[in-house]
Amino acid sequence: MSSRKNKSDRSSHQTNQNYESERILTMQCLYCFTPIITSVTWSNVFYPSSFQHFCSNCLEQLSMIEKPICPRCGRPSNNLCIDCHRWEERPDYANVLKMNRSIFSYSNFVQELITQWKYQGDYELIKGFAPFIRKAFSANFGQLAKSLTIIPIPLTHMRAYERAFNQAQAIAQIIANAYKIPIIDALKRNEEITEKQSKKSRYERLETKNPFFLSQKLHTNVLIVDDIYTTGMTIHHAAKQLKKAGSPSIYSFTLAR
Ligand SMILES: [Zn+2]
Ligand SMILES: [Zn+2]
């Protein structure tokens, strides 16, 4: 995004000012660096994570998924969506994934934000997403939290080299910390099988061999965590291996759908 300034401009991230006896905190939007002015109150002074990290313009473009949603994958829909129907028609994938829930509707803006985070290793951006992650997790999985083990989708070695860090791991860590849920990196990638998704058609992608295997069996319910749910192929591949190994119920959580 052209309005995004150089990272080095972030040096004075937040400053306190006295303003007519009211405490004002000036922060910058984590994405476009527009200043955000917040009054410091008793309710937010002890919870700095509750401060707004994105400006109102960026927040407006982050469109939250609202009901009605597909009961399976959580995208806006009145019934089971067409993608989920397709998964249900495949005997090898039907019922492997109990439910996916995502926070934001997939859009160019969300894609840009996530790509920025992905390839520039923008550690700060997780602070902006954290309140959304905690809220969406609590609303959709709060009741199940005690029964879950979190498994983040791993990066390929190639991508781990290209990127600064694994976003799925960062999202998983926020949930794990808030709910005291264990994260187990049981999902491993078979590096022989690559998913060069962008170069393949949707049909070809669905036919790709499963790139995942498990380093250990889990007999608990599992929450798979990833950044984006697009065709659902990555999550279905992961869910299938977990189901085969004996996990009773498999759920997934992503930032965007
Ligand atoms: Zn902004
Ligand atoms: Zn669906």
Automatic annotation (TrEMBL):
It comes from the Bacteria. InterPro entries: ComF/GntX_DNA_util-trans, PRTase-like, PRTase_dom. Coiled coil: none annotated. Gene3D superfamilies: 3.40.50.2020. It comes from Gracilibacillus halophilus YIM-C55.5. This is Competence protein ComFC. PANTHER family: DNA UTILIZATION PROTEIN YHGH. Belongs to the ComF/GntX family.
